[in-house]
Design goal:
By secondary structure, this protein is α/β, with parallel strands linked by helices. The protein folds into two domains: 145 residues, Periplasmic binding protein-like II (D-Maltodextrin-Binding Protein, domain 2), CATH 3.40.190.10; 90 residues, Periplasmic binding protein-like II (D-Maltodextrin-Binding Protein, domain 2, 3-Layer(aba) Sandwich), CATH 3.40.190.10. Helices cover 29% and strands 30% of the residues. The chain is built from seven helices and eleven strands. Helix 5 packs parallel to helix 6. It is globular, with a radius of gyration of 19 Å. The relative contact order is 0.24.
Amino acid sequence: MFGLGQPRLVTSLIAAGFLLIAVLLGALYLLAPHVTLRITTGPAGSNAQRVISTFISALHPRIRFVTVPVPDLEASSKALEDGKVDIAVVRSDIRPPANGQTLVILRRDVIAIVLPANSPIKDTPGLAGKTIAIPAGPLQEENSAALDKILGYYNVAPAAVKREFLSAADIGAAFHQHRVAAALAIGPVGPGEAVSVAAAIAKASKQAPDVLAIGEADAIAKQFPEFESIDISRGRTQGPSGHSVRYGP
């Protein structure tokens, strides 16, 4: 939807981005005059790592952070559960630590299944037997697992939808060569992965792409509490419109 047309609301299932999880003592630490806290950084090069860097720089100067690198978001959750850190960044669709509580929701991300214009795929079951592109990166496996949950709701076996992990530039080429039928994009409502993927598809196909409608967003959110359903106005992201998916706390 590249910003054209009249505004309209579309029901979307959105991913509730990154949560900052702390043990119960974390709140007490933050009230102390001088304190050192151990905090996970998230996978190297990921949005989680950038979010944590911004979070640390914005806090009180009397709070000193010791960053603890982790290979993925599941390891971030486990580090808190095992007492190796005091604060961890996790994503709500990844298993949260049993001994933690949410300190703050840092960001919410939209999950969109982007299609080229005039795609014959009209619903989620239509992805069966097709290949979907997923942006390559530190969270590609986690993003693929989020797709599996959506497919599972529609009784589509994950193995029935092939995946190719590609850069944004290669995603455009894959569409042009008809190697993939759709692309999964997870990112903020605005500049980010979702818009980059849509732009790559638009450039390759010479037409504005669309987003696969998820007509049962509310029902999916009830089955999977880590997701929530929201409405997005057409044109808001300067990218594709339609029914998409998002993570919730």
